[in-house]
Write a structure and sequence with these properties.
binds iron/sulfur cluster; about 170 residues; about 35% helix; 5 strands; alpha+beta; two-stranded antiparallel ribbon; 6 helices; single chain; 3-stranded antiparallel β-sheet
Length: about 170
Amino acid sequence: MSREIPAVLQKARALFDDLTPLATDCGRLCAGRCCQPMEGENTGMLLFPGEAAYYEGLPGYTVQRTPAGELLTCSGSCQRQDRPLSCRLFPLLPVLRPDGVKVATDLRAKPVCPLARQGKSALRQEFVSAVRICGQLLAQDEQQRPFLEKLTSQQDELKALRKQFGGGSHV
Ligand code: SF4
Ligand code: SF4
């Protein structure tokens, strides 16, 4: 059984070992909606490159390889040390802009997360800073940077769609 993931991902994940979006448990606001499967949808958390190795043989987790990337599904509860980076960052995301790494509200989070609808100014600022530092670490890594670029493009596409069909943006 392997729990070996790239060192940069270990560092990125460790930034959030004790840091959550609010000082209190935000799951009480919404009954932990981001951890519940959505009916009729093939939900899962997108894994960063090399992160799937952590979940090989780990009970309660399944990795699916899909056109969107490697998706992790879980049982709806987890030990904090096993939480993938996507869950640690949620509902924010580092994005790559010409003038560097920026912190955006993940537009995919808006339908489920009340914090995402409020925007990052409502969150603990240490958490927002950790997302920025995480993005800077990943942007310097040759395996992770293209993945961040892809996530950034997806956010931009969603933003354009929201603009076309209605809905605000916090990016
Ligand atoms: S949906 Fe948002 S508010 Fe609810 S537990 Fe997840 S991050 Fe916290
Ligand atoms: S891994 Fe943990 S934090 Fe992520 S969706 Fe599953 S239960 Fe929620």
